[in-house]
Write a structure and sequence with these properties.
294 residues, alpha/beta, Rossmann fold, 2 domains, 8 strands, 14% strand
Length: 294
């Protein structure tokens, strides 16, 4: 296995460094701005790695480099490490929205450049290191980087796939909608529960199993068939009861509910076609949006 340098030891960078070590790769260098987390990771999982400061970096001997920093910093990091990169090295960044072209400065020095984006939600580097098996990993770049990236992805237990570089930003927006927006939606559902009189901790406990059952349905069914609840049943009377309960809700929660209700009705129409009940509920949602100034 080739040596690997990981630049940026945060949630993803830390998880990737641990997972790569477990998979048999030698992570010999951790490059950081703040070494507190890197020291924890080194002590617990990567004892023989060296911790370096990005500001004092003088050498990168690893054949593989992962840049795991926030998107706006990728180009800056590429510029900073450019003097230490050569044609024997492959450099990946882990952005979902940017292509390997952001590493053009390194490609100009002969390095092989690619992007390596695990499609998983990592909120902690230690638990996140266990999330790579079964995760789809988007690999993009020149032929050499793509081939190596796929090998690395498979070694982690992941499922590599590739898309055209032009599609990366939209691909990433879709991923944000499925994961980040779902988390924001869940937080708003907890708020609504709180307005009903249920404490926040209990609301979370109540809603987690419901969310898990929805994910389970989506694993087996198309969204239009997995849809359940008031809008799926075209239950106008229940919808009206919901509206009557919204008087004391913050407007943003009402707007969110109604907007997603319309999207749910789109799924119902795909599933069952047009009907009088569907049209009546659509009209009721439209009236409600005007009432609440959505």
């Amino acid at each position: 296995m080739q040596d690997i340098c990981v630049i940026g030891i945060g949630k993803l960078g830390g998880a990737l460094a641990i997972a790569l070590t477990r998979a048999g790769w030698r992570v010999d260098q951790l490059v950081v701005r703040n070494d507190r987390l890197a020291k924890r990771i080194k002590r617990s999982a990567i004892l023989d790695s060296k911790i370096s400061s990005i500001e004092r970096l003088s050498k990168i001997s690893s054949r593989i480099v992962f840049i795991c920093v926030d998107d706006p910093e990728i180009a800056n990091v590429a510029a900073a490490i450019s003097p230490f990169v050569n044609s024997n090295q492959t450099v990946f960044h882990t952005s979902g929205s940017q292509s390997s072209s952001v590493l053009s400065q390194l490609s100009a020095r002969g390095a092989s450049a690619g992007s390596f984006h695990p499609l998983t939600s990592i909120s902690d580097p230690f638990t996140g290191a266990d999330q790579f098996p079964g995760t789809y990993i988007c690999v993009e770049g020149n032929s050499g980087a793509t081939k190596l990236g796929r090998k690395i992805a498979r070694s982690l237990g992941g499922v590599p796939f590739s898309i055209d570089a032009k599609g990366k930003a939209l691909y990433h927006a879709a991923a944000v909608t499925a994961a980040g927006h779902a988390t924001a939606l869940f937080a708003n559902a907890i708020k609504m529960m709180e307005f009903s009189g249920i404490k926040k901790r209990m609301a979370r406990e109540i809603l987690i199993p419901l969310l898990k059952s929805t994910v389970s349905n989506l694993e087996r069914q198309d969204p239009k068939d997995a849809l359940t609840g008031t809008f799926s049943r075209l239950d106008l009377q229940t919808f009206k009861r919901h509206l009557n309960a919204f008087d004391n809700l913050p407007p943003d929660l009402v707007h969110l509910y109604l907007e997603l209700g319309e999207r749910s009705l789109d799924l119902v129409q795909k599933r069952d076609g047009r009907s009088r009940a569907l049209d009546e509920l659509r009209e009721a949602v439209s009236i409600a949006k005007r009432k609440f100034r959505c």
